[in-house]
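Priority: low. Protein: Family 3 extracellular solute-binding protein. Input follows.
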Amino acid sequence: MIKQSVWAAVAAPVRRGIAACLFLAAASGSTLAAENPYGLIDPDVISVGTMGDAKPYTFATADGQFTGFDIELFLNVASRMGFPKEKVTFTGQEFSALLPSVANERFDVAVAAIGTTEARKKTVDFSDGYLAGYLTVLTADPAIKDADGLKGKRLGVVQGTLQEGYATKNFTGTDLVKFPDNNSAVAALNNGTIDAHFLDYEAAKQYGERYRGLKAAVNIPSFDAPAGFVVKKGNDAFRAALDKGLHEAMQDGTWKTLYEKWFPGSPMPDQYLPKK
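Result:
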């Protein structure tokens, strides 16, 4: 009986100490969640991974600033979340490194007209879609008029893109040459190293305007893999906030205004226009 009393006298403070520690831990966790509700690397700044050569989606200007449709749209969405332009940082990377960098928490989000696919959703999460369009074969070869014309040809693709996956599956008999970005692929196209390059329609249009000898030979619809903002898997609060901002930007006409600015004359998907 004495031993039990001694044990009870010792155990009671221990239990109280454990309970206090658990309470403090829970309180600390709640405080951290309140101070960083979106689970950002730095709660005061959104760190964005992007590309510097994917005009008009995202590209770097001569003074090193990033701009383009995706950049301006993201900045608008971020401002709706309480992050002004000076609280959003952009870093350029090769496309193939963007998703791993988000998954490994180097960036909070990747923004570069990144198509949503089931394969990609195994490692990262996507916001709702905000852009859909076409995949285009760019070439100076008049013999390439359709997919069959690519057989036996050397076709450039940017590693990790929808174009690489589509070409691997559908352009049988074509020699695929992988590049880190569009600029290096188009340079290879211009010097004859490859016969054609497979990229987004809007980017192809920009290169065609810059290099008059290049033409869009094949346009393939890609509405089943709309572009979305990429976030770390499981960061639902951040993803939901991005979705809310996106829907607001679509509903109040911001999306439409930016689309007309960056894609003049291009078909406009109805699903992103204001709903009456």
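The domain at 41-132+225-272 is CATH 3.40.190.10 (D-Maltodextrin-Binding Protein; domain 2). The two ends are 78 Å apart (CA to CA).
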